[in-house]
Amino acid sequence: MIALLLLGCFSTTITALPLYYNETTICAAENGDLCTNPELDYERIIPAQPGYQWNDAGGYCGAWSMQRATLTQGAWISQQQVRDHAVPGGGHDNEILSTNIVAALKNLHIDFNAFDYTQAIPQQNAYAKWIKEQLVAGYAVAWMILWDGQAYPIYNLKPPAGMYGHVEPVIGIQSNHPLNDTKVYDDDTVVHFTDGGVQNVYRKLSTLGGQWDGPGHRASCGRYSYCMASYAFGWSFKGFTDDKKSMPANLAVEPWKSEPDVRAGKKGEPLKGTLTVTELEVGSKYDIYRWDSVKSAFTYSDTYLKTTFTAKKETYVYEDDKSFISSGSTYYKCVPSTK
After folding, report:
1. Tell me: domain 23-239, CATH 3.90.70, correct?
2. What one-character DSSP code corresponds to residue 317?
3. What is the pTM of this model?
4. At 309, which helix (H) or strand (E)?
């Protein structure tokens, strides 16, 4: 029996929000005990913040996943801002699907790699190799998965479009083999969020495969609540399309668990941002810029300069004393100083 609980995104019609599995169900022992860290010998976990998506208008799982993945590159983008910078893709208004995510990424100045979901099926082996490469490189990934028991494709789209029921950010890779070994092993494990809680979920890549028998049929994921079958989807977040050299930076916000749902009539709230910059050269001078809109982003003038510092260590933490509004878009970048 399908657990009709509190976590979901997308629907087979555009009038009903599907509520399939919540985080408790995903983490349950009978579903694979996926929230217990297997503690493998090697890992790369990208600093990221979990939390809760908005559930109206088809579910904002795609927008929320893009938001959380973009934080790992130094920017905050409201879930509504993500939709506002997308185009209609066949779901609720500009709901993020495989059909319009690329337009949203480009419009938001996000540099990305995309898995080719138009290649020959099944795609699971190629996808496992691709996603491992992205995560080892330090790029968070937004993936699209099938819910066990849901009929596909959604929204009466034509496959491969619509072959997913949820979007989540994937933020880490674990292995019992050194991560410079590009082979995919049976115990290689990815770490992801659910969009509906604060747990890390640990899933072996070798177990992601499921069964789907064609349009109108329900996905079968075996003992698991989610899987991929026939097609696979993923977009990794590499940084921003601005061509000015910059240092790796990760943004954390407070409060972080959720943002007020402005689509439902709530008002945005002030967020405090903390930027962690890495891979600095000790003794070198750097500038940190901040832009509070998509339109102004990456205009390098004193108007947007927040601070200049000389690196004393390879890592620098900048706590911004000025908040920004949760309903907007705020980008940070740390670049070699020209001062």
Report:
1. yes
2. E
3. 0.94
4. strand 305-310
